[in-house]
Design goal:
Number of strands of chain B: 5
Shape of chain B: globular
Structural class of chain C: alpha+beta
CATH topology of the largest domain in chain C: Aldehyde Ferredoxin Oxidoreductase,  A, domain 1
Low-confidence stretches of chain C: none
Distance between the termini of chain C: 53 Å
Number of helices of chain C: 27
Chains: A alpha+beta (123), B alpha+beta (90), C alpha+beta (649)
CATH superfamily of chain B: Beta-grasp domain
Strand content of chain B: 25-35%
Order of helices and strands of chain B: EHEHHEEE
Number of helices of chain B: 3
Largest sheet of chain C: 6 strands, mixed
Number of strands of chain C: 19
Shape of chain C: globular
Radius of gyration of chain B: 12 Å
Low-confidence stretches of chain B: none
CATH class of the largest domain in chain C: Alpha Beta
Structural class of chain B: alpha+beta
Number of domains of chain C: 3
Strand order of the largest sheet of chain B: 2-1-5-3-4
CATH topology of chain B: Ubiquitin-like (UB roll)
Strand content of chain C: 5-15%
Helix content of chain C: 25-40%
Oligomer: heterotrimer
CATH architecture of chain B: Roll
Helix content of chain B: 10-25%
Largest sheet of chain B: 5 strands, mixed
Largest interface: A-C, 39 and 54 residues
Chain lengths: 123, 90, 649
Amino acid sequence: MRHIYVIESLCNGCRLCEVFCSSLSDGVFDASQGRIRVTKVPGEEQDIPVVGCDGRCVRPIYEDGGPTCVALCPTGALIYEERDDAAARRLELEAARQAHSLFKVVAPWKWPLPWRDGSASGD
Amino acid sequence: MKNLELRYVAHVTALSGCLVESHQTRASSIRDLVKELDGRYRGFQELFVNPETGSLNLNAMIYYSAPNEVPITVVDLDQPIVDGGTLTFW
Amino acid sequence: MTVRNNSSQTILWIDLSLRKTRLETLPSDWTGKYLGCRGVTARLLFDEVPAGTDPLGPDNVLFFGTGPLDGLPVGMGRISIACKSPRGTVAEGSSGGFFGPELRRAGVDYVAIRGQAEKPVYLYIQDGKVEIRDARHLWGLMTDEVDAALRRELVDPDTQFRYIGPAAENLVHASPIFGNLNASGGRAGCGQVMGSKRLKAIAVRGTSGIRVADYDGFVQAYKVLRQRLDLATSRDMWTPVWSTYGAPVLARLFPDLGNLMTRNAQEMSWDYDKAMRISSEPYLDRYVTKAKACWCCPWPACQKLHRIESGRYAGFKGGNYWAAQPVVFGSLIDNDDLELLLVLSGLCNRHGLDVFHVGYTLAWAMECFENGLLTTADTDGLELRFGCPDKDGLIDLVGKIARREGFGNLLALGCAEASKIVGQGSERFCLTVKGQELEGIPQRNLYMVALGIAVSEVGPDHTRWYPPYPCNPSLISKEELADLGVDLDLRLAFQGRNPEQKGRLLRWFTISRAVVESMPSCVFLVRDTLGLDMRPWWNLFNAATGIGLEYEAFITAGERLMNLDRAFNIREGYRRADDRPPTRMATEDVPGFGYPRLAPEIFEPMLDEYYEANGWSVTTSIPTAGKLQALGLDDVIGQFSALGIEVEA
C-alpha cells in the first residue's frame, strides 16, 4: 500500500501542500484545515510536513488521481510510495547529494534535466 | 585542432562535474561540439538540443565568443566556432 | 470558522499619536479600478499624504497592503509597503514571505499607520482586532532577535511579523522593513518612516478561511500558471537556473558581456577567477543548508539558508544570497572572499540595513579614498580600498553605519547626501538616481534598463519592470501580441543598445508588472510568456474575486497606478529633469567594451518616447488631462489645478 512519505530535508516551507489540500473538500483555502500541516521551527531553520491522511484526496486536482500535495510539491519532499520504495528513495537522494550539491535543494526525482549519476542518466 | 575554453554554469555542472575546462576539438559548429561533449557527459545533447526541431532548447542557453570579442547568445546551433573561442553553457 | 471572500477589501486605520484604531471597508469599486496591493496603496498614498508633508513627521502615513490573491496559492505572500520617502518621492516596495496571507486571514487587507508613538510600540492584530503594545523591551534589537523575542512572547508559531532593525530606528537612509528573517522590502524609505513612528513591529494572527468565487476556474487557471513556471514544463532559459542555483551565477554570466559593475562601475568586467569564487556553485557546495521559499512558490529554491562551518567566521548563519550581493559585496568593492560577502550581507539583514545602500556607499567611499578625497582621518583609521584589505574593519563599519557612529554616520546618509558633505567633486562617484543607490543591472548595455531606472518614481527599482527580456519569439506570434494589445516590434525592442522602441517597451513592462504586483503575485515569476500574455494572471484574478473584469480593464488598472505614482511625485515638485541616469553612466563610456556613455543624444529621445507613449507631457512629464480622464483620474486634474500645476490637454 502506498503512503505519503516526507523527506524533511527537502521541504522549503512553502506550504503549497497544506494550502491546496485545505481547499479540496469545500473550496475554502484555510491551511489549518489541511490534512497535511507544515510545522515550522522557530528561526526558520526547519520545515517539517506532517501528513494526516492516506493519500487519497477527496478531489485531486490532477487527473492521474495521485495525492495533490505530492504533485504540487516543488522540491520533491513528498513522495507517494510503497514502504520499501520510500526507503530506496532516501538512499537515492543521499547518493545524489553526495555527487552534486544541486540535490540539497531539489530531489533527483523532481529534477527533469539530465545529470551524471554514475549510471544511466536522464533515461 | 581548435582550443576552446568551456564554462559550465549551475545545473550543467551536475553533468560536467567541473566549472571550467580547456577542450580540444575538430568540431566546426556548436551543434557538433555539443554532440561531442555528449560523448563525454551523457545527457549533454538532451540538455541543449530539442530532438524534434534540432534547435536550442527553450530552457537552455549558450553564450559563444570568438577570442577578445563580446559573447553572443547562441540562436543558431550551426554557429561556427573558432580556435581560442569561449563557450558558456547554462 | 469564519470564511471571507476576495471582492471586498478592508483597511485598518491606526493613529499612533491618538492611540485610536478603526477597521473600514474600502469602496466596492476599488477592486476593479485598482485591483489590490500596490494598486490600492498607490491610490491611498496619493489621497492621504498631501504635498509637502514631512516624511519623518506624524502626518506621513505608512501603508502595508495585501491583495485579493494573498492567502491563495498564487499570491506568493507579496505585500506592498508604501509611504512618502524621506527623499521626497513615493516610497513603495514589496516583499514576500508569509505576512500577507496571515493579515488577510485576520480579515485585514491594508494597515494604514499615521501619527507617532511617544514610546516604542508594536501592533498585534488578531482577527480584525488590534492592540497597540509596549515595545520598549524590543527597541534596539536586531531583526533576528526581535523575531525570536516576539515568537516567544506571542507563542503561536503561526503568528507572522514585520519589523525594523536598529538601522531604521536610527533613521538610517534606505533601511528596509524585514520579516521571516531575510525577507525585506521598502528600501525606498519605508523603514525610516516606520522608525520615525517608533513602531518596532507588526504581529498578526488570523484564523479565517478564504473562499474564491469560482473554485474550478481557479484550479484551471492555477494549472496554466504552474505549467508556465514548473521546472518540467517552463519554456524559459532562466527557470532551471534561477529556481535552484539562483541569481549569484550572474557573477559568471555578466563579466564577459560588460554587464558587471566592478570597482564602483569604473569597469564593467571583473576577473573571471574572482567571479567564480563568489558564484552560486561554491555557495551551494560549501554553505547552503536547505532551500527556503515564500508562500506557495512553485519553484524549489529561490531562497536558501546557509551556514559557515569553519574558519574565520565559523558559526555565522544567514540566508538569501541573491542578485544584489555578488555585485554590491563582490565586484563593486572588488571582494572575492565569499565568506566575507556572506557576513557583510548577513550583518546588513540583522541590523536592518539595505545592501544596495551599504554596498554602493562603500564603493563610493573607496573611490573617494583612492582619489584622496577621504583619508584615514575621516574613516576612523580604516584603509578603505577596493579589494577590501581590512576585512574586520569593513565588518565593524556595517554596525557603525546602523548605529550612526564615527565614520558610519557619514555613510548612514547614503552616498548622495554624503557626497554633498564631502564635496570636492565626489558627486561624480555617486551612483544614484533621485537620491537612491542603484541596484545590480547594467545600463549602458541595456537601454531599456537605463530608462527604467531613470524614470522610476521611487528611485532605482528593477522590480518595476523586471524581467527585462522577452520570451523566445517562437512562443508568441505577432498576431497574438496584437490581440493582447502589445504594440511593439519585439525584435527592435530587445536589441540592448538600440534606442528604438525602448520607451514603448518600458511602458508595457511597467504597466504589466504593476498589474502583477497589484493582484498580488511575484514579478520574479514573470517567465515563459507571462510577461506578454497576461491572461493566466487575469483568469486567476477573476476566478478569485468574481468581479468579471474585462482584460483591457485589468491591464488599465496597472496604468492607473503608474499615473497615481507619477502624480504624487509631480505634486512634490519632480519633473523631467529628475528622470536621468547617474552621472557616471551619462558621462563615461564602458572601458574595454566601447559601449558609449548614455549621452543626451541617446537618452533624451528614449525619454520622449516613454512620455509620449504614456500620454505624459514631453516637457514636464506631467500626465495630460486626456490621459487622466481616460483613466478616471479626474480628481488628480482637479488637485493639480488647485495647486497651480499646469496640465496639458
